[in-house]
């Protein structure tokens, strides 16, 4: 019968320089001349979802992954595309290429720590594997085995190179294996770490750490460089063994956030081989307001005039609230045909709309067109309108400027495009230096 063991799990917690709350739970593993240094770590600002749930990560397993080029480091801004434009990072630290030969490329960290990192293979943009040579003589090998070389889902290029072996200067070594799902979900999970072996002495491993998973009720999908990655498992246990005999086991219990339904760790327990447990670490989560949105309520009584009514929410007067512009087609006596009619209803800070149109509502002096774009033409924070009318081989463009007295028609410009089948888009496309 399992019994309670006096004590609890060691844990460090604090607040980092960004103001985020952090927790580190070091994993106690069987001793050896060379053993893994691992922990369960929480960061309150982390938005990624791992096999440990929201905010948590397993520390101690190094990976190299692709990262986008940046203007300050590479003189251009890129994206992960699985080609020569990609850059690389080891455990989040940017690698800088310094030399290249036919089958070997040498890198250094952006911030020098006197390590040497080598990529192997004929294609520098898609190495077969990597080696990380640390200043103390330790060597990490990454991505050299099939299960540690994680391809992008549906492509042949490698997405992640995970550590598969670590060797110290005395040839003591660790071996890492993974559940590699790069042909199904695109994800990978640590499977086992074996250690205690020595290459020179031809000594095999006697110790191991095994990671246990279950199918999660909240599978999470993300995309990296256009490739799908679906996290379908969550870690429920970490078992330590010596000579195949269980020494102790970490057990992880989860619940789900009522708002996001994402898994989150509720409890971490350490038990010996007989099931006797120390006092568990328990986590009480603040759930926040269960109501994401307020209930439906009427904000105004509006009866728009005219036909072909369109509603355009926008900040007409630059006071920070979204007003409502109602655009419709209505006969304009001044034009002798259907004109563009605008009704503007201002919003207040209580989320209410005025029941009566604002000053300046009415005819615009322009023919009706269903091509009207909201945009800020003069940069004053007020949303203006661009009226677009098609005349066979060219367009007439007229800005309706937002003023305290309503939308005021500005000078019309003729626009002659190379073709008449394009689409208009508004935005700030100019970078001011």
TrEMBL record:
Keywords: Secreted, Virulence. One of its GO terms (cellular component) is cytoplasm. It comes from the Eukaryota. The keyword Flavoprotein does not apply. It is found in: Secreted. SUPFAM superfamilies: Integrin alpha N-terminal domain (SSF69318). This is Insecticide toxin TcdB middle/N-terminal domain-containing protein.
């Amino acid at each position: 019968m399992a019994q309670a063991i006096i004590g609890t799990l060691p844990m460090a917690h604090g607040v980092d320089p960004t103001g985020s709350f952090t927790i580190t739970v070091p994993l106690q593993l069987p001793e050896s001349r060379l053993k893994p240094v691992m922990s369960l770590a929480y960061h309150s600002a982390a938005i990624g979802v791992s096999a440990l749930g929201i905010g948590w990560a397993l520390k101690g397993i190094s990976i190299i992954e692709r990262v986008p080029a940046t203007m300050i480091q590479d003189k251009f801004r890129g994206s992960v595309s699985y080609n020569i434009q990609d850059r690389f990072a080891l455990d989040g630290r940017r690698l800088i290429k310094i030399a290249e030969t036919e089958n070997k490329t040498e890198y250094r960290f952006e911030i020098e720590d006197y390590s040497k990192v080598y990529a192997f293979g004929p294609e520098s943009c898609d190495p077969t594997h990597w080696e990380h040579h640390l200043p103390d003589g330790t060597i990490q090998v990454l991505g050299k085995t099939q299960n540690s070389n994680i391809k992008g889902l549906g492509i042949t290029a490698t997405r992640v190179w995970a550590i598969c072996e670590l060797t110290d200067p005395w040839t003591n070594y660790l071996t890492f294996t993974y559940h590699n799902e790069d042909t199904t979900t695109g994800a990978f999970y640590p499977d086992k770490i074996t250690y205690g072996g020595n290459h020179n002495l031809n000594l095999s491993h006697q110790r191991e750490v095994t990671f246990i998973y279950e199918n999660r009720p909240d599978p999470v999908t993300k995309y990296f460089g256009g490739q799908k990655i679906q996290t379908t498992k969550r870690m429920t246990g970490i078992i330590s063994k010596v000579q195949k005999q269980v020494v102790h086991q970490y057990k992880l219990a989860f619940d789900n956030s009522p708002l996001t339904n994402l898994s989150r760790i509720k409890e971490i327990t350490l038990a010996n081989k007989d099931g006797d447990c120390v006092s568990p670490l328990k986590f009480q989560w603040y759930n926040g307001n269960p109501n994401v949105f307020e209930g439906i309520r009427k904000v105004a009584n509006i009866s728009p005039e005219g036909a072909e009514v369109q509603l355009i929410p926008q900040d007409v007067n630059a006071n920070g609230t979204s007003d409502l512009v109602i655009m419709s087609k209505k006969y304009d006596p001044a034009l002798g045909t259907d004109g563009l009619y605008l009704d503007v209803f201002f919003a207040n800070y209580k989320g209410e709309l005025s029941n009566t149109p604002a000053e300046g509502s009415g005819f615009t002096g322009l023919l009706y067109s269903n091509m009207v774009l909201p945009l800020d033409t003069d940069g004053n924070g007020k949303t203006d309108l661009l009226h677009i009318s098609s005349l066979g081989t060219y367009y007439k463009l007229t800005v309706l400027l937002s003023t305290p007295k309503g939308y005021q028609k500005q000078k019309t410009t003729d626009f002659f495009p190379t073709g008449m089948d394009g689409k208009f888009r508004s935005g700030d496309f100019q970078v001011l230096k």
